[in-house]
């Protein structure tokens, strides 16, 4: 299989899994993957969107307050995806007091990086 086929197969294996998708503008979408295509566009169901307040976006190494809202069914364009994390169920809770996004603790899972023009995936 070529690299693009490998990436498609990897994304297909995540169908019905809960994903945390971070976009290049620092938004995070947490929802169940329903569908993907060859361009890595994702359809997520039961999705919550989390936004880092602009003044905190530069300092992600500390505990931050996130604003969130329920969106339901969403399409995330593959070109806008910064990273994908599988098994982000711990993010599903509504964030009231903040969320530690500086790594460490809980969750585990598979990370898929989608860098600028980079076609590699880390698993």
Summary tags:
123 residues, mainly beta, six-stranded antiparallel beta sheet, single chain, SH3 type barrels, two-stranded antiparallel ribbon
Q: Explain this structure to me?
A:
Residues 99-116 have a biased composition (Gly residues). This is Sm domain-containing protein. This protein is mostly beta strands and 123 residues long. It has a single domain, classed as SH3 type barrels (Roll). It has one helix and eight strands, in the order αββββββββ. It has one helix at 3-13; strands at residues 18-23, 28-36, 42-51, 63-64, 67-76, 81-86, 99-100, 111-113. Strands 5-3-2-1-6-8 form a six-stranded antiparallel β-sheet. It has a two-stranded antiparallel ribbon with strand order 4-7. It is globular, with a radius of gyration of 14 Å. The protein starts with a helix and ends in a 10-residue tail after the last strand. The model is unreliable at 91-111 and 113-123 (pLDDT under 50).
Helix content: under 10%
What is the domain total for the residues? Answer: 1
In whole angstroms, the N-to-C terminal distance is 17 Å
Main sheet attributes: strand count, strand direction, barrel closure: 6 strands, antiparallel
Pattern of helices and strands: HEEEEEEEE
Instruction: Quickly count the helices.
Output: 1
Radius of gyration: 14 Å
Low-pLDDT windows of residues: 91-111, 113-123
CATH 2nd-level architecture = Roll
Q: How large a portion of the residues is in β-strands, by DSSP E?
A: 35-45%
């Amino acid at each position: 299989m070529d690299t693009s086929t490998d990436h498609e197969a990897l994304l297909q294996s995540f169908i019905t899994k809960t994903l945390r998708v971070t976009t290049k503008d620092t938004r995070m979408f947490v929802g169940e993957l329903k569908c993907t295509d060859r361009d890595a566009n994702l359809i997520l169901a039961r999705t919550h969107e989390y936004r880092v307040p602009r003044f905190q976006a530069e300092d992600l190494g500390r505990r931050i307050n996130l604003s969130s809202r329920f969106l339901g069914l969403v399409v995330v364009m593959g070109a806008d995806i910064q990273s994908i994390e599988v098994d982000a169920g711990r993010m599903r809770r509504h964030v009231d007091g903040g969320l530690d996004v500086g790594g460490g603790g809980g969750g585990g899972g598979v990370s898929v990086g989608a860098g600028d023009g980079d076609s590699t995936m880390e698993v």
